Amino acid sequence: MQTQFLTAPYKAAVMAGAQMFIKVQVFNANGVAGELLPVTDGSITYDYSAAVRKTCTLNISDPGRTLVPELASSIIAPYGQKIKVWMGPADNLVPMGVFYINEVDASDTGAMFGITIKGYDQSGKIAKETLTSVYIINGGTNVAVAIQNLLLSRDPKLKFNFSPTIYTTPKTILDLNQDCWAAALQMATTVGMDLFFDRNGVCTLRPTPNTKTATTSWIYSDKISDGYGLLIDQLQKIVIADGSVFNDVIVTGETSGTTAVYTGRAQDLNPNSPTYVNGPFGDIPVFFKSSILTSNAQAQQLASSKLLYFMGRADQITLMGPPNPAQDEEDVVKIVRGALSINAKYTIDKIEFTLAPAGENSTAGVATGSQVLSLRKVVSPT
Known about the structure:
It is a single chain. The protein has helices at residues 8-15, 122-128, 143-152, 180-189, 296-312; strands at 21-27, 33-36, 39-47, 54-60, 82-88, 94-108, 113-120, 135-137, 160-162, 172-174, 193-197, 203-207, 216-221, 234-239, 248-254, 261-267, 285-290, 315-321, 332-337, 342-355, 370-377. The chain is mainly beta. The strands form 4 sheets. Strands 1, 2, 3, 4, 5, 6, 7, 13, 14, 18, 19, 20 and 21 form a 13-stranded mixed sheet that branches. It has a 3-stranded mixed sheet with strand order 9-12-11. Helix 3 packs antiparallel against helix 4.
């Protein structure tokens, strides 16, 4: 949640479905700010479960045909150039992300001309910059330090905001053509932490949010007692039991060069839960193996965090309505909808913001664009 923007005027604007404004600025490969781009519409997506969390597709108005990239130095060429996007009420724009341009499509039908820019956060760029020589992480290296050093080998200008961790790595050898972002994500996951680039392009490492204890960030409600809440156009509830729902997480770690085996296990032991391991749902296990775990405590932390995620997916909601640019993936929200008998907390898995031109509005009749939230229920395994 972007708490720095939660002023009274901002809250009032998003609760009323006020008109949203969009600002997009291009930066060259050296990071020098350039011109503002005339965006007509498009989308921005935040996806918690994706390796590259933040992506965008933006349509640009260019009636003079001046922006079509011809050279690597053109302002929107996909060779290190990036864009920064803001969205929100006119007097309170919220940064939506820093996106490296990876594709530019120009369409000319004679009568109509348009440009579409596609971009991703810097993790997408790092993922492409695979290793050209063997990379060795010494045993006993603090995991946060190991991740920083690996990513700095791809881009020495990176900025970091890392929470500390007590865990260390075993000796790890990364081979040629290794995806460094994938390796960094694996290290973060095994210590119960999330790794991603934030909205300002800062590489962030933080403990995976504990949805049971997290503060409710937003309320989507049709109850007077809640003071109502953010607007809802449409709500769909899905209760599932197959494919992505597990109630027994088993983690095993075997480090090369040693005979040590580390284990962790977390189960849904709540008799009141629909996915109780000893109930009608049955015991549905999922297994994780890792070569970089170094203790049973680390394996147990990984198992416990994964259990919360998988259990919540048994009760999923898709919510559509006017956009709230200040909310993030993994925010915990309260949803109350009498018609569907919903009154519970959910965690945002994915946000899809649709940027629409003026006149293509949502519920309140003035909101530019819309949002689709994919959410999983906040549950307790005990």
